[in-house]
Write a structure and sequence with these properties.
This protein is α+β, with helices and mostly antiparallel strands and about 150 residues long. About 30% of the residues lie in helices and about 35% in strands. The protein is built from 4 helices and 7 strands, in the order βααββββββαα. The chain has helices spanning about 15-25, 25-35, 115-125, 130-150; strands at about 5-15, 35-40, 55-60, 65-75, 80-85, 90-95, 100-110. It has a 7-stranded antiparallel beta sheet with strand order 1-7-6-5-4-3-2, with helices on one face. This is SRPBCC family protein. Pfam families: Polyketide_cyc2 (PF10604). InterPro entries: Polyketide_cyclase/dehydratase (IPR019587), START-like_dom_sf (IPR023393).
Length: about 150
């Protein structure tokens, strides 16, 4: 499978969109919920917002690496997205109110191309680009289930 294919997962959350938004914009929850992300360090004051920059600290088995991320969309209760400058990937959470709660989706796309650093790193240290993309796709579901549990608690 391609390393640049769009990855997507969604889940129904039995909680109002305001609560789910609160959870997906809490960086400590994102760290706890992700199988790969181990920390998010903000580079600017002002919290999670459009223009904010983060260093994402990631881990896969024995490999640990940083990524530089910039929040490019921040539409409260609807969508938050950030570009991972280190790889060329874009990550997003999308929220949609339903009759019983919230439909929550997470996406990883590659709007252009994976940059050379990202391709090299995935190929040499993460088990190959397509394998890592497969792992990320599985991780989306794991992340959403964790966010669901936290939002519903």
């Amino acid at each position: 499978m391609s390393t640049t294919r769009e990855l997507r997962a969604e889940v129904e959350v039995d909680a109002p969109v305001e609560r789910v938004w609160e959870v997906v914009t809490d960086t400590s929850v994102l760290v706890r919920s992700s199988p790969e992300l181990v920390a998010m360090t903000p580079l600017l004051p002002g919290g999670f917002r459009k223009g904010q920059q983060y260093i994402g600290w990631n881990r896969r088995k024995l490999v640990v690496w940083p990524t530089r991320n910039v929040v490019i969309e921040f539409e409260p209760h609807k969508r938050v997205a950030w570009d991972t400058k280190t790889s060329g990937a874009r990550w997003a959470f999308e929220l949609q109110p339903t009759q019983t709660g919230t439909k929550l989706a997470q996406r990883r796309s590659v709007p252009g191309k994976l940059n050379p650093i990202g391709r090299f790193f995935a190929a040499t240290l993460l088990g190959g680009g397509p394998n890592h993309a497969d792992e990320l796709e599985t991780a989306l579901g794991t992340t959403l289930e964790s966010i669901k549990a936290i939002a519903e608690a």
